[in-house]
Each structure stands twice: as C-alpha cells, then as structure tokens.
Amino acid sequence: MAGGSSSSTAPAPSLVDSLFQRSLDDLIKSLRSQPAGAEPTLLSRALAEIRREIRSSDPDTKAIALQKLTYLSSLHGLDASWAAFHALELLPSPSPLHKRLAYLAASLSFHPSTTDVLPLSTHQLRKDLSPSSPPPFSSLALHLLSLSASPDLARHLAPDLLPLLSSRSSPPSPLRPKAAAAALRALSVCPDVVPHLFKPLVDCLSSPDPRVVSAAVGAFAELASSGDPSSYLPLAPEFYRLLADSRSNWILIKLLKIFARLAPLEPRLAARLVDPLCDLLRRSSAQSLVFECVRTVFSGLPDHDGAVRLAVDKVKDFLASADDPNLRYLGLRALSMLGPRHSWAVEESREAVIRSLADPDPNIRREALRLIMGMVFDSNVFEISILLVNYALKSDPIFANEILDAVLTTCGRNVYELIVDFDWYVSLLGEMARNPHCTRGEEIERQLVDIGLRVRDARPELVRVARDLLIDPALLGNPFLCRILSAAAWVSGEYVEFSRNPLELVEALLQPRTSLLPPLVRAVYIQAVFKVLVFCFNTYIDRLEISRLSSLGNSTTGGASSIIESKSTAAASCIADGTTGIESNDGIAIGDKPASLFSSIENKDPFTCESLTNMLILIETAVDPLAENDEVEVQERTRNVLGLIHMLREIPTWKTEEQGFIKDNRIGEIVNLLQSMFSEELGPVSVNAQKRVPVPEGLVLEENLANLAWTLAEDDTAPFMSISFSLRSHQHGETKDNAASSVQSTSLLAEHRKRHGLYYLPAEKDGTESNDYPRANDPLLPASQGDVSEDLVKLTDQSLIPRKVKHTKPRPVVIKLDEGDGVSTSPSTTVKESKDDLLSGAIHDVLLGKERKPSSSQKKYSDKSSRRRVKDVSDNGESVSLSKEKLDLGDREHRSSGSRRSKHRSHGKERHTSPQKNDEKEEKNHRNSTRSSHHHERHKHRQRGEALLDVAPQAPVIQDFLL
Amino acid sequence: MIHFVILISRQGKVRLTKWYSPYSQKERTKVIRELSGMILTRGPKLCNFVEWKGYKVVYRRYASLYFCMCIDADDNELEILEIIHHFVEILDRYFGSVCELDLIFNFHKAYYILDEILIAGELQESSKKTVARLIAAQDSLVETAKEQASSISNMIAQATK
C-alpha cells in the first residue's frame, strides 16, 4: 500500500492537526474560490493534508480526511486506491456516521480485481450482514458487496446473504430487494454460489411484496440477457403469471425483457405471449412500456403477424410524434430491428423515415440512414443510392460523408454484389466525387480502380467518368479529391482505347493546375500521358498503314473500313483475349461496341500529323520542367516520356510528310513495342496468390534471413495495397526498360504468364450493353433549395421496397478471385446482430452438449463487453452447478430424487408418468410449467437425436427444480 | 443494467459519479471526458440518447445539470429517463428545490439517496415516499450518534486519551 509506506516517514499528526483540521466544507469553499488555473496546486496540497490526517488515531479526524478524499476522488478524479486500507479501518466503527463514510469511500474506490486489501473486508461485511446488526448497516454492506464483489468475496459471503434473501426468516428481512440485487452480482461473478442463492432468488418471485418481486425480476432479466437464456425457460410459467398479475410498469418492462429472450426458444411460449402483449400495446399509456412491447414483439415474435401489425402501428405513432425526438429516434431503432422479411413496415413509414434524414438531430439522421441502408437490395439500390447521394449534396459536411460512407460500403459489399448496372454505379462514383463535402477520396479511388480491373464492361463508362473528372480544373485544388483524380488518371491511361478524344485527355492531364497535386499523383498523371501518347501514335500509324494498303489494292471502302476496325481494335482484342498482342495484328473479331467507338473517332479524325505534332510540343513543354523534379517517381516518369519524344524527333522524315511514318519503319516498331507493352492487361491480384506460389527446391529462405521475417509478414497484411502495388510496380518495371529491351520484357511476361497461368484471370467475352438506365447525374432532382425533405419524399415514390425489376441487360461479369477476395469489403454487421448470432450459437452448443470452445468471434465478444467478462464462466458454471443444486434440493424434498433422476436419464420421454409429489401448490400454473418445459424437452430431443444420452441429465435438472 | 451514473454541470464540472461496473480511475476520467464532450455539445430539443462504444448513454438536463446514465444497447431508454426523473424528484424533495450547490456541499448525501434508488445498476426502490423515509431514518441515526459524540464527557474522554 503506497499510503502506508509513505506515511511511515511523515510526522504523525498531532492533536493540533486534528483540532484545526479543515472540514469538507472548508475544502470545497477553497476549491470554489480559487483563481482559475490554481486547481492542481490546491489539489495536491489538499491531498498532502489528507495523507497526514488519515493516519490519525482519532476516528473523527480519520473520517473527515476520508470524506475529503472521497470528494476529491469522485468529483476531481484523484486516485484514492492508496487509501483503501484506511477505509477498511473505519468500517468496524460503531458510529453510524463513520461507518457510512467508510462504506461510501469503499464503495466508490474499491475495485474487485485490483484492490488487494479486499479480502480483509470479508469479516466486517459478514458481521454487518448478520441479522443481528441494524438494517442500515446491512444495507451498507450489501451495497459494497454488490459493487466490489470479487469471486472470493462472493463465495465466502453467499451463506450470509441467505438469511436476508430467504423467505423462511420471519419476518422477511426489509432488505430482501437489496439482497436480491447483491445475490445477482454474486451469481454473475462466482457461479459456485448458485446452489446457495438461486433457489431463494426464485422464491422471491412469489413474494407478496412488489419490491421483492421487482428486484428478483430485474435480477433474472439481467441473468437472461447476459447468459444463456435457455436455463431460465423452466421459470417461464412463473414469469407468465407475473405478466398477467403485475400492474407495475417497472416489473412489466423487466418481464418483457426476459420474454424477448425466451420466446425465440420456445414457439409455444411465443404463441401464448401474443395476447397479453397485444393487450398491453393497446391498453398502456406509458411509452416506455409500449416501446418495450414493440421491441419484444419485433425480436421475440416476428412470426405472429397480428402482433407485428399492431406494433408497427405503434411505431408509426412514434415516428409521427413531431414534438418528441426521443420517440422518433426509438421508432427508427425499432424498425431497424425488423428484418428484410418485414420490409413492408419500413415501406409504410417511408415518408417519415426519409424525412428523418433531414432531422435536426444528427443521431436521428444517422439512425434513419442505418435503417435505409439495411433495406437495400439489388432491386432498389439504384433509387436509394441516387436519393442519398443527392441528399448528401444538401446536408452538412459530417452527415454528407456519413451518407457517402454508407453508400460506398453497401454498394461495394462483397465485390459489388448488389450492383447490376455498373455504368450507372461508375457515374454515381463520379457524382460522389463532385460532392463539395466529400472526404472519402480513398475509398472512391479504390473502387474506381477495382471496378476497372474487375468489370470489363464498365470500362468505357469508367473512362468517360474519369475524363469528366480530369477535365474539371476546379477539382484539382481539393486535397481530398487528389486520390480520386489519381484513379481517374490511371483509368484513362490504362483504358485509353475507349476514350473518345485522347488529345483532349492529354490536355486535361497536363493542365497547369496539376502543379497543385502531390508528387505521387503527378507521377500517375505523367504515366497516363505516356500511355495516351503511345496509343495515339500507334493508332495513327495503323491507320496510315491501312489507307496505304487500301489505296494500293482495290479500294472498296467497306473492306478498308473493316480492316481499319480490326487494326485499330487490335489493342482491345489483345486485352480481351489475354494474349500478348504483338502478333495479333491480323485482327480478331470483337464486339461491335469498340468498333463503333472507333468509327466515331474516325469521323472526327483527331489523329492528323499536325495534331500529333502539337501534342508532342504540348507534352514537351508541360513535362520538361519536371525532369528536374525532386520526387524520384515524377522525375523518372518524366524522363521516360521525354525519352520517347526525343527518340521520335530523331527520325527526321516524320515531320515533313505523312508517308514518312511508313517509310521509316522505326517509328512503327517503337510504337508497336510500347503499345504491346501496355496492352498487357492488369488484373486484380488475389490476397492469397503469394501463398500459392510453390517454393522452388533448394531455395532456403529462412537461413540468415530469419530476422527479416517481419518484413515479409507485413506484405500480406493489406489486401488492397497488394492490388495497387502490383499496378504500380508493373508500370514502373516496364517503363524503365527502353524500347529496345521491351521485346524481351514482353516475352518474359508472356512466358511468366504461361507458367503461372493459375494466377492470372481467364479472359471472357462480354455481352453487349445498352444504356437504358438514366444516369445518376441526370437532373432528376429539382434544384430548388426549398423544403428539402419535401423534395426527398417526392423522390422516393417507388423506392425502399424491393420490387421486381426487369433487368434490361444481364449483369456484367465481375471478376472474383477466391474465397479470400473481398473479405475486407464485406460489411461489419451491426453489433446487435452479431451478438444474437453468438448467443444463439452458445445456446446451440449447450443444447448439443458440446464443450464451449472460445471461438475467435466469441473471444471478440467477451473482449467487447469486458464489463461483463464473467458471462461465459457463469454460463458454464451455472449449468454445472444447477445439477449440484438439484441434488441438494432433491435430498431435502424427495427421498427418491436420485433414483428418479437416473430413470430420467434413460427414459427421457417417460418422465411425466413418474409420480410427482402431489403438492397443494400444484396449480394450473405449475401444470403449465410441466407441460411447457416438457414440450421444450421434446423439442430438444428432436434436435439432439443421438446425443440424447449424454445431455439428458441437464434438462431434468431444471425440470425438477421447478416442482 | 446501468453501468454508471454521472452528473455533469453545463461547464463540464463533475458533480457526482457512481460506477456499477468496474472501471479503473484512469478509465473513469477518460469516460467522463469523452461523454461530456459528446453530451454538452448537443443542443436542446434533440433526443436524449447518445450511442457510445456499443452502449447507450441516456441523459437529461435539469437546470444547469446533466444527469447521464449508461446502459446496454438493449435496455429501455425511456425507462432510464423515468429513473433519472425519479432521482431528481427525490433529490428535490429531500433538499427542498434542489440546486447545484446542494449537491456540491452535500455530495455524500446525494450518494446515499442514489444508493437507496439504485443497487447493482438496477432500480430497487420506485416509491419516493419509501426512499424519503429510509433516508430520514438513517439521518436521525447519524444525528443521535453525533449528539452523543459531542456530549461533554465524550469530548473530555477524547482529549485525554
């Protein structure tokens, strides 16, 4: 104890000290009158004073010092754990004043696991709990026990709780409710005490005193919600009786909480609950009770349509209450408890839900957003996303980004499983990027590139969107958007063959304001320029070649144009077929679309000798200063571009005459080589790809490099990094080679691809497509800034509910790699759901009699709820110790219990024929209990099948216990 | 269950803290800082619930004081609002139109009252009368003890010990 050791050196407090001790009031006054900023010094002085006074032998001085310390620790956050021993010293004091202060100090500062003097309090607590001590003292002891019960303390003191809790003591103790609460805490920290305390706690349920019943019901509600509820199923008849009899809303709410847990376990119980619940829903005027009913219906009885209907009507009332934000909030929460099965309920309240998006309260808005996103299906994702993205334009920055987040995660979930029309989605992404509040650049960047890699059909639209983004000088100044622009630049360079006007693209990529971009993004821009440049020359040369051929031969225009098509789309076909592309110049039939695209280019014909010359000049002037850039990436890429331009310039003929291109074959060769280099398609890389590469024989990786293991391990951690990394490194590696060696690199690539074909994606042909859907950025929305929510509501005429949509075109192929792919995009389900899953899993385990192994998810759960860390322990312990208890009780009440139990084990189904004690208590309710738990038993039998023999003892335990 | 009860003034000063789940002193300070940042910034006429780390915090403002209680996600928020109101009414009755200063100078009494209403994070006494009676009984017990202690013979005995 820190206090003890430090105080041994300080002078002992004198009588003067205690005579002139500052009282609590003095301390508070001095703290209140202090000038601002002087508090720390004042506090430390007061603390030093307390440290001295608290060691006084005079109980008054000690008590006042302790009181001051309690004040400082609870309201000023000072640490009081050092004084735990001094609080203990005062506990036995005969003076109620001192005792009260000591208990207060102890209950505020003791911590069940870190207070090491806690065991020393056992004796005093026992003394104060004994029936002979005055009730106020026992009450204090119960409080301390309920707050700082460690497992040991609970175990030692459980027998002492018994007289306070038991109905046998006459008259029943006035502290019975408090004892019930303390017993709850003892049960949850230490399952060993179940044999002592569980039975008396159950007896409390039938007490005539409503306070006792309330405390007991509260305790069971807590136990059922924190542990496995199936253990409490046998008590259901008792709870049901209380539900029918009780008039107290406090008790009813707790009972409903219990039933919400029990009803899913036992269909017959659920059926019986419908009537009383509907009755309460109709009758009660207390909103808290009505809300609890609604929640119980939604979570416990979702199959009973009548009850759900009634509850949904109540929720509508909640949502409509204009003056109470609490009810609106809770209404939204309640609706989101209903699964997709009841999406009609959300549909009915659509207007109110959409209106809530514009609520002044951010919590309500968030709840509405969550609810809406929970109702998204592939049939309505279109309307909902448009609605939300448009709404994000008008809302405040924080919420706008929350909306964008929600839309991005929902649409990107599980490799875009909801998206059918990628053209639309891509333009929606562009739309989001233009939101002035958008700070989600990284995710949009990732999705743009990812869609480019995965969805072949979306590429033309992707390029169009990218062009629109690149060309807008206003976007360049926004630091949040540079990631998106980087993706746009990459997309337009990589898929330049879909571009309508590559020259315009070059201008956009080199516009002066690009100097605002960070260096790495500029590097991507320059690389894109490089690709576009190569593409332009290649197309131009191909076209010259063709026109030469056609002028030489019988110039039938049709033939020529078909050759043009096949030539100019060679690049595209390379990609489509996944071949290396150099030899594929003879042309392969391909879908109509790229061809039509190119014929439109042909009409405008941007590729003239003059335009190309201008482009070269433009590139040279814009890029030249960057050759000396400090950033290596920028510098290197710039030099690549400049190198190519110089190489082209060195060939003199091209400037003078068009035919120079043809005459000097070198240009053709160079450009062809470069083009073929870029036409190799980049695909997404599986997270697990690295693992699948077999280690060549004779390669010893660990030796001498063992200490670098962490470096390797790091690589596997970021799945999406791996994609972008592979892109960059590809480009990087390739561009470093000059034209001469690129043949080699291409053939190497081809060979590599042949060898490791497994890791590349099979290329597939795509279907045709049409643009029947309206674009996301079509001005659907009236731009008026009037009543936002009115507009919103109007917008959603047909949204929110999943409906049959005739897909005018098939969903394009989305490349998925394997199981591991897309894992990180999968959404985290809400806490509530995962909780339920875990719980049901736990119940299932118990039913099957399996060992409960802490699965990773379970571990996560217990981590999360560290405040209830004892839960799992108590679950296991309870079922075990319940059987122990059963023995105890059996001995007391039944001689034949033991033999009966063994009979049960062998003939589980015959149990009801065994003669029961004909108690006078055997009323209707109890008969119910036999029946319902019996039914439950059978239910379990069905599930269990072969495992029956192993687990049978567990169920009769509960059964017997009730009777 | 209720995990903790905090009373914060509008200026962010803590007026009462009660922890029904084990938190270390460090965690307590952190929780208070986070929550006062979240709650005090919320305007009037907004809902009384805040989500916080998988829990829910129900708060209500009375004059310059915010009464906050932290509960599990599946607990009943409206019930907690009623408990808060219950607590405030009892304080009001005990102190006679309670104000912040009453709680500052009688912080221990506020604790005693809270302890009669809540135990182990559960409501245990829903009758205002009973709470008032219990508190009065305890107070009179303490008063008689005080009187005894301050009687002259006792003082002499103390001084000459």
Question: How is this structure best described in words?
Answer:
The complex is a heterodimer of chains A (963) and B (161). By secondary structure, chain A is mainly α. Chain A is built from 50 helices and no strands. Chain A is elongated. Chain B starts with a strand and ends with a helix. In chain B, strands 2-1-5-4-3 form a five-stranded antiparallel beta sheet, with helices on both faces. Chain B has a two-stranded antiparallel ribbon with strand order 6-7. Chain B contains six helices and seven strands, in the order ββαβββαααββαα. Chains A and B meet through helix 3, helix 5, helix 7, helix 9 and helix 11 of A and strand 2, helix 1, strand 3, helix 2 and helix 4 of B.
What's the short version?
The complex is a heterodimer of chains A (963) and B (161). By secondary structure, chain A is mainly alpha-helical. In chain A, helix 21 crosses helix 43.
